[in-house]
Amino acid sequence: MSSYVAPSPWPVFYHRWRLYLNTWRGSVFSSFLLPVMFLVGLGISVGSYVDDSALGMPYAHFIAPGVLASTVLQVAISEAAWPVLAAFQWVRTYHAMRAAPLRPIDMVGGEILWIWLRAGTSAAGFLIVLTLFGIVRSPVALLALPAALLLAVASCAPVLAYSASIRRDGWFALLFRFGVIPMTLFAGVFFPVEQLPLAARWVAYASPLWHGVELSRAATLGTPTAIGWLGHAAYLALWAVAGYLLAVYRYTRRLTD
Amino acid sequence: MVTTLVASRVLRRTTALFGTLSRAGSVTARDLTAARHTGYWLVVLSGFLEPVLYLFSIGLGVGALVGEFHLADGRVISYAAFVAPAMLAASAMNGALAETGYNFFARLKWENLYDAMVATPLRPIEVALGELLWALARGLIYEVAFLGIMVALDLTTVWRALPALAASVLVGLAFGGLGMAFSTFMRSWQDFDYLSVATFALFLFSGTFTPADAYPDALRVVVALTPLYHGVELLRGFTTGALNVAMVGHALYLAALAVAGLAVAGRRMTHLLCR
């Protein structure tokens, strides 16, 4: 009897892994060098002009967990953007997978597993850097890793649905310029959101990144979060579940045309 | 007799120059025609947004934590007024590189547009010049809008903004020349990753967010060689009103870079297109 492999997300994950072995060099920049440059160029350099008493800690300690979360966001969204559109539109990998016994749900699941690996390793690498800089001292900081995975799935799942709904990559420029970059700059990474005007503050509160920043800041600094860690985790889980369902729906629609 | 000879020579040179400029202008005019669809303009306009968001986030947001900022000459300005000219310089850099980097490369390598152009009386250097003019025009939109915002936020005055606008065109010219020269050496679009690494490093470490004087010595020497640093210093001198002699040096550096970049791009294009 021929060996029948039941449909599962793992072949999709393995496919991404094999592709990554060819192109990993470029990703070292975006997922490792970039956050370190932010830490040195803003955290330490600008930090020397910041009055520590205003934040209750050195500025580098304040932005480090924020840069960690924003790197996770950046990696998760990039991986759910161009490679996914390519698999639908340019290389048509998904169409080949669909012809095999893989279901849309396996493809979404496989992409999320892969993004977890990418985001998780970026977060772990940056935590090591933070330890070397003396910013992270307690093993409690390891809790930033589950926070990173939660933020990764909350941000990548809706983008998987977005990528499954578009046909030209120009839409990604808009996603980054009107979504990712404003979030990175205003969702509590570089300065506390309390400084924002009221309307902008609520937009920041609604963004998944702010909740990820609060969680990872609580982990690396051991400080309480604004609405309790459970509240932040629940909000991110909401994004993850809604995004996941939408992504499965959009994948199914696109692959049954 | 001699005067007639000299006069005819001058006349020939002058008409040649006008010919060059008008042929280069036809390349710019093609770009303008090709840009006439909404999707393109949406991307161009959204590109302007990035430095503005940085100004609000780092300049005003982080600036509130920094408080007042002491310049080298002892004057006190807001941190936002310190960061704003650097964002303007970065904006001029990005605007110029957006056209002369990836877009220029696509026309050169994939669209074979320049192969078609050099089959007409256009010379490669004229094509390069025309593209540079287009990159400057695109950058000019960003720069005027950004300076408008700076004036509105009281980070500079109109009279300081005017020379700053001219200086930002010079920054765009330097990076446009550099970007084009760089693009002629690229093998594939993956090579543009190096360009984005380099521009991001320049963006963070060109005296943009803190004065370059405060950098460690080794870094300061390296930074003093890079182009964005000279752009930032030149623009900061104008927008804060702290005019100084060193600005002449910064301007000369940028002008030399523009000429060198254009010359290299012209030569490389001759090599690539006229085989």
Q: Which labels suit this protein?
A:
heterodimer; A: 257 residues; mainly alpha; 75% helix; elongated; B: 275 residues; two-stranded antiparallel ribbon; 10 helices; 2 strands
Name the average pLDDT of chain A. Answer: 90
Please tell me the total number of domains of chain A.
1
Strand order of the largest sheet of chain B: 1-2
What is the CA-based Rg of chain B, rounded? Answer: 20 Å
Share of helical residues of chain A: over 70%
Structural class of chain A: mainly alpha
Oligomeric state of the chains in view: heterodimer
Biggest interface and residues each? A-B, 31 and 31 residues
Proportion of helical residues of chain B: over 70%
Q: Count the strands of chain B?
A: 2
Written overview of the protein:
The complex is a heterodimer of chains A (257) and B (275). With 257 residues, chain A is mainly α. Chain A has helices spanning 10-44, 52-55, 59-79, 82-90, 93-99, 104-132, 144-163, 170-186, 198-206, 208-221, 229-255. Chain A is elongated. Chain A is built from 11 helices and no strands. The model of chain A has no long low-confidence stretch (mean pLDDT 90). In chain B, 43% of the residues are buried. By secondary structure, chain B is mainly α. Chain B has 10 helices and 2 strands. Chain B has one domain. The interface between A and B is medium-sized, with 31 and 31 residues.
